[in-house]
Amino acid sequence: MECREKLGQKVLPIFYHVDPSHVRKQEGCLGQAFKKHEDGILEEKDDKEREAKKERVKQWKEALTQAANLSGHDLNNGHEAKLIRRIVEENIRELLPSTDELHVAKYPVGIDSRVQPIISDISSGGSDDVKMVGIWGMGGLGKTTVAKAIYNKIHHSFQFKCFLEDVCHHGTSQHGLLCLQRKFISDILKHAKPQIISSVAAGIPVIRQHLQRRRVLVIVDNVDKVEQLNAIAGSREWFGPGSIIIITTRDEHLLNQLRVDMRYRPRGMNEEEAPELFSWHAFDNSCPNEEYLELSKKVVSYCGGLPLALQVLGSSLIGRPKIEWESYLEKLERILEEDIIEKLRISFDGLDDTEKAIFLDICFFLEIGQGYVNKDYVTKILDGCGLSPIIGISVLRERCLVAVEQGKLKMHDLIREMGKIIISEKSPTQPERLSRLWDPKAVTDMLTNKSGSEEIEALSLDLPSSKKMASFSTKAFVNMKKLRLLRLNYVELIGSFKHFPKELRWLCWHRFPFKYMPEHLLNQPKLVVLDLQFSKLRKGWKNSKVQSPLASDFIF
């Protein structure tokens, strides 16, 4: 007890076949032992020695009283082995140095509120159940941070534990999966003799052999292919009772394949957390400096609650004068920070070509639709393009690239910015060579100069009605052989439509300037939707024979 008081050491009382109250008050068999000892002291002939022994017994009694008042364990004729296991799992591991803890975050703002509900759910239910837990969401949302925080909170209860970070880097080749298995076995068994594994198929029985009867904690971080999980945690039967397997991923469909017991999607930072996290990184303080308050609000608004963006931008701006902040904000309107792009783009790069096309088309529709668009409307158009949008949009939603809310397609602002960057990076200095184009100046210049190319698949020119209606020649579209999506507003086209692009699926021409449908305009064999709202059209096509199926949807 003196070591506890002076050195700060831990004391864990274990009442082994003795009543705690007898220890506290020195009664019962303990009282009898003390009385016998004190009787012996009275027989001591040396007065000085006798007084020293009395003082020592007094200290013993005080120490026992203090110890008995501490929280501990009472065997009380219970199962001794179970008590020992509980002591090891609940107490001794907590007392050991935290050598197994992971670094979570420099500034752990809002982490506890995200972690605690997950830990509560994990702790509920049968103690012998093997639980598989999924944490999914877009890149930069803090999935790995949450998983690390959970690990630090509960790892002391597990003798065998492992945190496998960035599993996606191992890929799905036999060599990559084999390296992943070897690392997993090595990390979780620690000092066990290294296993010689010749193939992935041979590694699975080894994992089962060592872990099937052991209670383990496994966190598999950043999974992007089901093969990675099948190599190390393919089934609950591989692990002993009470084991917990936590998986983080950008792809919700992986969690469906594994049939996880629980799934969580970390929320973005709220109006209180976002400014605080940004301020810690930008000012080393929980709130911004007064003179930077308005600029800080603009940056936080730009980040849209994404922890990664708040961290990256805060770290980039720390210590900079206001004039550089203003310049940086101006730059952000044109170029997304590279560290943020890198994280967000991983989800896009994992798509197949058709899914990428759907994503970029949705970016186009959202960009010209001011951030939202009707899901069924876009699905119909993309279906006409042969892109299988029903499954494609589902995949994008599972990978957090698109959200569906009340029948509308939406995207996080930074995801949309990434989409614009992907579109523009093919030819940043020659917009006429981009696949999708909606910048009014670039489109106006291209139509004026008739410089359009075969690369263009989607085009939008939305001009203000306050100005005179712009006129362009139909010849400006002659080279756009792959043009599928065309939107015009307050625009007039002059000339013959004979060679107008035949790949058109969607023609949205608001304020259509003609009273009669021009000859050849509707000879579009693949047109799905024709939208001529606010038009001057008074009568159908004049002197024009429709040679091909027309759009299935007309909006006049």
TrEMBL record:
Domain TIR: 1-95
Keyword Metal-binding: no
Pfam family, one: TIR
InterPro entries: Apaf_helical (IPR042197), Disease_R_plants (IPR044974), LRR_dom_sf (IPR032675), NB-ARC (IPR002182), P-loop_NTPase (IPR027417), TIR_dom (IPR000157), Toll_tir_struct_dom_sf (IPR035897), WH_DNA-bd_sf (IPR036390)
An annotated GO BP: signal transduction
One annotated GO molecular function: ADP binding
This protein's record includes keyword Repeat: yes
Keywords from the UniProt entry: Leucine-rich repeat, Plant defense, Repeat
PANTHER family documented for this protein: ADP-RIBOSYL CYCLASE_CYCLIC ADP-RIBOSE HYDROLASE, LEUCINE-RICH REPEAT-CONTAINING PROTEIN
Name of the protein in its database record: TMV resistance protein N-like
Natural source organism: Pyrus ussuriensis x Pyrus communis
